[in-house]
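User: These chains co-purify. Model them together.
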Amino acid sequence: MTTPLRVAVLGAKGRIGAEAARSVEAAPGLELVAALDREDTLESLTEAGAQVAVDLTHPDAVLGNLEYCIAHGIHAVVGTTGWTDERLASVRGWLAASPSTGVLIAPNFSIGAVLTMRFAQQAARFFESAEVIELHHNNKADAPSGTATRTAQLIAEARAEAALPPQDDPTTHGLPGARGADVDGVPVHSVRLRGLLAHQEVLFGGTGETLTIRHDSLHHSSFMPGILLGVRSVADAPGLTFGLENFLFAGE
Amino acid sequence: MTTPLRVAVLGAKGRIGAEAARSVEAAPGLELVAALDREDTLESLTEAGAQVAVDLTHPDAVLGNLEYCIAHGIHAVVGTTGWTDERLASVRGWLAASPSTGVLIAPNFSIGAVLTMRFAQQAARFFESAEVIELHHNNKADAPSGTATRTAQLIAEARAEAALPPQDDPTTHGLPGARGADVDGVPVHSVRLRGLLAHQEVLFGGTGETLTIRHDSLHHSSFMPGILLGVRSVADAPGLTFGLENFLFAGE
Amino acid sequence: MTTPLRVAVLGAKGRIGAEAARSVEAAPGLELVAALDREDTLESLTEAGAQVAVDLTHPDAVLGNLEYCIAHGIHAVVGTTGWTDERLASVRGWLAASPSTGVLIAPNFSIGAVLTMRFAQQAARFFESAEVIELHHNNKADAPSGTATRTAQLIAEARAEAALPPQDDPTTHGLPGARGADVDGVPVHSVRLRGLLAHQEVLFGGTGETLTIRHDSLHHSSFMPGILLGVRSVADAPGLTFGLENFLFAGE
Amino acid sequence: MTTPLRVAVLGAKGRIGAEAARSVEAAPGLELVAALDREDTLESLTEAGAQVAVDLTHPDAVLGNLEYCIAHGIHAVVGTTGWTDERLASVRGWLAASPSTGVLIAPNFSIGAVLTMRFAQQAARFFESAEVIELHHNNKADAPSGTATRTAQLIAEARAEAALPPQDDPTTHGLPGARGADVDGVPVHSVRLRGLLAHQEVLFGGTGETLTIRHDSLHHSSFMPGILLGVRSVADAPGLTFGLENFLFAGE
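Assistant: Joint model of the four components:
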């Protein structure tokens, strides 16, 4: 029998953090040794003998948390947002001094969302037309969503690489906004609807056919499988890894 | 055995007109007695003994055609576009002088499109959120489509009638256009994609659920059942009828 | 200011019952005066002065509950399942002795589901083809779902009424099950997928076009607006009402 | 300026063949030098100096055509169906004697269909549940479609390779057929609807999320880009290539 991996969750009283703590507890081969919230000290991590820390806190807290973890050789899986080149450089600096420690930072832990982006990227060069529709609950403050913007950028890059011509907009008379937001030449449409959670559709069109890749996130538990995959993989990936896709397609 | 109804098609060399002529020929109970194009004289209609004329010509020609038909007691089913209140008033004037003649003018002969609008109208008052996505081939010059604009207006009217509050847009930071065109407070999004023909999705959202009504027009033959229904019904509807829905739901 | 309506919830510790109790508490014009569970006596209803009781209990308990409510002039809104003609006859008998009391029994309180069935029924006679796909989480024991079966029956009835010919199955060689279950001549397909909740798609096809009506239930709170509508309407509908649609389209 | 590639089409009076001939004529860098039908002799190919032949004929004719082409060093792109291991062995035998000649045989020339299968294969190991829905016009004789069966097999293989457990069917009481056809443990559902052409949806479900890959073929011209890609690539791929995917992802 293998000794279970000792895992801590930081931000364990938040909605996603609490779900992560429960998921770690329930996962075979993992042991939840600490569930920290704002008032807890980072020393609890070392006292508990944590091998991997899952950070689901706040942009204000995450850098301090990571500095401590890396200094103590605790691997980290980070879902907290707000990353800039400068902040990533700090993390890389700390990791240089602790070369066997691994940190995974991922803007999206949903496997379905990551696959959607990857497939969109792979399909883009084969189709004359590409547009993105993202649909979210009616409390979302940003439009388009970060995932949709990123997806459109990946499509635009793949089109450019394949030397596809730009998409001509045929509209000669229309209402402002009808053709969506322009993200690097790819139209992105944002629907806000009561009852929805987080959904995205990538549409490609060519001669006589269309290809649609749709991701539906129906519950915030959709992040859990990705977090658990990160927890299980991060110790074998020293240094900084950005994006869950690096672990998803590791063997390819 | 019933005598077949004698039908003429005007604009019979156009794509839709040619299809209409074939559909009339193939339809039980109908006989195609004349298929006119630009160079033909309207006298051919009376010479052929047409009882119903299907006009699929051009805004420049349709008024002359209708004046002739009505004057000779030939009922008409009209798919030609470009109607204004003034033009409709002319038709009503001619009909006043020929009270047993019927004219059906319809902006859309697709039964699926008409049902979509009707269901959207019926559903609107039950849902907090409503948006429209229309998707067309990438040669379409107007955005949103006329059908989508009309659908959004019908939804807005139904919401107002039910005293629903306006839809708040939650967006605080976004790209211009992301949230679509505003048609009477209902967001409308226009997708233009190679490979598509004409498609429309009406989305409603309420507590914990969504309702979607989607119409896909995959071939221009989708107008034929509506045209044939018009041909069969127009003689029993003296005066001007505007909109196929009046014949679709006649018995309700 | 109007006096709030005094509402009791029976089965208030179940998942749906608890949500219903919260919804009643939050709803303007309603007051939650009792939240009963198995161990509570029905006398609490009269003691609390309940005017309307919402029954979300169990087929074993509901008849007793209704007998008591009706005898005491308490209107009832019932989401509990398991109704047979015999059981409904009992309820009608009790109501005969209490003619001003109203009881609403509804197999489905989701407004989206009820609208889907109604629109399917209205659309059916216009299309040559009709099929139903229902998609649920992978713990559902019955296939097809009750709602899908009912929807298919309504479509079959509407087709028969319009004298549409039966749908020919073109399959000459195939695998067993590929073409779904046969419900009165309408194929019904049942998808079971982890991550889903309750979803249904009704597909109609005619010349060159299709019409799709899709209902997505993403959270069990989707029953709440229908329950609240029932609570607000039942006092004005003495006797037994079966099906939420009777209250939804009351004014039409 | 490059000399255009000299292309012949066999089966040029069939619907797909005629479209292929037009597409070759219109394509930059390609020249249509022969368009053969049943009554034409294969000698026309050599007389016309064809470098690549596109075979869109019939299982009865294709073997003779390929034997002639390979013997004369004419590369071939084959959309004709009916391949067995034995027939492929014959082609390989002829190619062994003409080692610089290339033959591409593809069961599906739609790029969207090939991408759908590939993405399904890549996604399968990440999701607990997988099902396939294919939707076709109501004249299709086989159910499920060949593409859907192949897609389900690829999913089943990927699941087995990743050691995923079999999908448990939760159904304890149901109607026969509701849960679709069983293709290696993956349920496949076949919808037949007037108005449709050829459509396929692959559904994956995991914790809190679903991923859907949908391919819509709206016109038979959807095969043309794949055929042209084959024509342009086959001369650089001596020997037998089976499946368009080998050319689509050549550089990966």
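Residues 146-161 of chain C form the longest helix (16 residues).
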